Structures
1.
Amino acid sequence: MTILVTGAAGFIGSNFVLNWFDQSQEVVVSLDLLTYAGNLKNLDSIKDSPFHHFVQGDIRNRSLLNLILKKYQPRAVFHFAAESHVDRSIHDASHFVDTNIVGTFSLLEEVRCYFNDLDIEHQKIFRLIHISTDEVYGSLEPYEPKFIEDSQYKPNSPYSASKAASDHLMRAWHGTYNLPIITTHCSNNYGPYQFPEKLIPLMILHALSEKSLPIYGDGQHTRDWLYVKDHVSALRCILEKGIVGEIYNIGGGNEKTNLEVVTKLCEILDELRPRASKKSYRSLVTFIKDRPFHDKRYAINSAKLEKTLGWKPEELFETGLRKTVTWFLENPEWLDHILSSEYQNWTNQHYS
Ligand code: NAD
Ligand code: DAU
């Protein structure tokens, strides 16, 4: 049996694939365009495995998708591939529309052809798992209850609007063509291999380089942090037991303000990698101009997943953050590889 994973060289995709290899001997076909965010080094440990096939390619390339599906006959497709960074979507939304909407449409159309040609037995087990985000629900006021699967769609950034569009395509292709699709909405992931444009790895990298730690606005924006390995275990559980056509929210149950997250990070770094000056990394914190239309609060209610499928997050925020910092400290060569001129251009432009 085989699974196909799009976006497999990105942060969550690569954690998912590596975990899959730890748990089973099923063949994995990884499809990734290797944009600035994709990094084959993430999959280094399985590069010689006969159970892994890596294809560099674009989800918008329908003939390539057709070929891959026919050749490898997957029993499931996990769709991670996307442009994923909110700030970049504000700067230029075109890739977000192309990949997140048009790319998802291409995938759906090719999966539809493939699915229709399967025999009944294979159709029964086939699943397309679409990895979406809590950001499609917009922003919560402090007093509002957490997002549930039926929360209204109110995307506020070009990124979340493009993900919302992809969710609607999934819903329509399930209803109209009976494609066995399950959509998930997770909260902010953190952990090994995260590209250092996102809050946690960016702050670690800036701290280690003695650069200021740029917090948008007043630092009181809240996110619900999910350790990436808990996200991966939720996806495995959903493939195994999830109901076709359903939506599952996946949250870590760790609501923190950005200032709390950065302060905690500084404390861990002070302990594990004290500065030469002996000052705390906290002294590098700088409040900068806010992100436009910045969502104030995300919080996920995962009760459906917990009650109906029996999944629960295992990592505490404190321990997950410590593991993440330790991973970055122990993998300086991974960071060196990531710090391309493209990355430098982005940070110079964005944090000038
Ligand atoms: P990422 O940016 O680290 O990785 C995305 C991967 O997709 C990269 O490897 C990139 O090369 C690949 N890709 C981009 N365009 C492609 C294309 N046209 N064809 C093929 N591959 C392409 O993102 P991530 O953080 O790993 O997120 C993975 C998925 O999870 C995304 O769909 C994202 O919307 C969703 N998500 C992420 C988070 C989070 O906190 N990181 C939270 C909720 C949902
Ligand atoms: O909620 C899920 C979403 O989480 C995913 O769908 C997105 O793909 C992912 O990028 C993430 O979006 P956020 O915008 O929440 O993540 P980011 O790491 O960019 O920012 C987290 C918070 O930190 C947010 O409130 C903005 C703030 N921030 C971010 C950066 C990069 C700062 O204060 N300073 C920064 O330099």
2.
Amino acid sequence: MPSTLLLTLPGNEAAGAALAQAAGCRTAAVQLHRFPDGETRVTLPAGLLGCRVVLLCSLDRPDEKLAPLLFAADAARELGALEVGLAAPYLAYLRQDARFAPGQAISARTFCRVLARHFDFVATVDPHLHRYPSLDALFDIPAVRVPAAPAVADWIAARVERPLLIGPDSESEQWIGDVAQRLDAPFRALEKRRDGDADVTVSPLGDGDWHGRTPVLLDDILSTGSTMLAAIERLRAAGLPPPLCVAIHPVLAGEAWARLRSADTAGVVSCNTIAHPSNAIDVMPLLARALPPA
Ligand code: R5P
């Protein structure tokens, strides 16, 4: 059986070490050189002949990462890899899964189609599936969705007494429902309206007996932070204690991290799908299970 070699793209070193350890496979680095004109030279390590190669690249800030990733995938094959897979702890563009206004590109479809042309399989953590029911509807190669819920639930269980899981929008029900079930805790999903990149309104919490509960706000993606901040405000208005905020994918654009850190919360933590100081929950052992045997 071919051995598995994990090749880590720059910026994914910590996740790469954790993933290789959990998967029990060898790991090496992909080197990128940016030329002054903005083009990128990709260099792979030696020894790919006859291996099954898995490229590890979290796809936040995807526009700058996509070209080098595809160059690396094709080079791995040309250098003798028998199979080339992608471990993308965060998969970008899935929120653009419809033509919300005339003329818009349905980026989710194109992005996944491009990846499928260069890789033999894909594994990712909690993709933002909304209008597409599953990864199979977007990829014509094997594509595995790895839920972060077991790691998130274990982390909360070890630190929070009597949690109340709250999601900021209807899509979040899939994540909070799974985590809440594992914790045997109540949950509630709010409703969200977005009128601009950072212009978000969420519905009030509504009635319920939350006495003695510790609110935990959980969302899949923290981007501008506006959704989380609007939900924090709703919980404050409902008289709940400051919530613990948990994100699966800390994309954290612009001032989002600073804004969240100065908000009245019991802390903001994330899964290590994107390297960030908020990383507290290790999902690499879960992602490792989706990779082929070492
Ligand atoms: C979208 O529906 C996602 O689940 C997140 O709620 C969203 O991406 C968060 O974005 P932002 O942090 O910019 O409000």
